[in-house]
Amino acid sequence: MKQVTISIPATSANLGPGFDCLGLALSLHNTFTLTGSDSPTAFPLIIEASGVDAHKIPTDASNLFVQSAEIIFAKVGKRPFSLHLQQHNCIPVGSGLGSSSTAVLGGMLAANALVDGGLSRADILQLATDLEGHPDNVAPALYGGLVLGVQGEEGLHIEQFPIPSLQATVILPDFHLLTSEARAALPSHIPLKDAIFNTSRIGLLIHALQTADFGKLNIAMQDKYHQPYRIPLIPGMAEAFAAARCAGAAALALSGAGPSLIAFAPANHQAIATAAQEAFAQAGLTSRTWLLSLDTEGACVTIAH
Ligand code: HSE
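That is the input. Now the predicted structure with L-homoserine docked in place:
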């Protein structure tokens, strides 16, 4: 019997202009403990879910962590007879904070460690990116901090940027928005001027985060690829952006595909959260808020024999 525990951070993908390629790891974690046994009397699959949104976690073979683990078992040709997963969530499900990425990455890392699969972190990141379709959540979840993922024929290139500590305010309205719906709202083509708008801002965004320059961040976090199409899908989101800005937010972005909003500011973090919550309340939505710092560790794997 062998046990692996994985702690993986939440992530905010896109950060405005960095659609599908840039993400930031945050100080909110899901924890997965996977125990493998070869005893023929053990129950083949047991899944226990606890914590935030635990009722939304499947406790059968359709569980995303388990499915991701099975990809690794199949790839390396080794699998314990029975699996026992204990999943404790602090990251809300379907929030735009990378909850699915923690399951994908967690399952792959745990399976590899459980059977001594011999895959490197880079191998696992490539497989997790293939499953997710883009690296902007899984790469910062694996490595921590601010991470850019560059995909190409030569494979996946990852660049991690050291940045000073920052406080982020996250506001999550109680609104159901599937990533697939949020992606379906996007145009298939982007005008050249919008492409230039975003590309110029990605460079500025990385510089502004590295220097904690909130004045530059204000310009750098603007986006024309996805937010103009997604913000109208979420009741009160445009008003929440405006209210958070009035309360002192220097820069704002939809977190991932939404429906959460992430705000950066040098101060007034609680006031920003309250202002955005009031805007969502005006639109008839309750909301949850978090004041978070950065995670710089990424995924942590602990093995017990
Ligand atoms: N970059 C992705 C999107 C993140 O915005 O659709 C969500 O998976």
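The mean pLDDT is 96.
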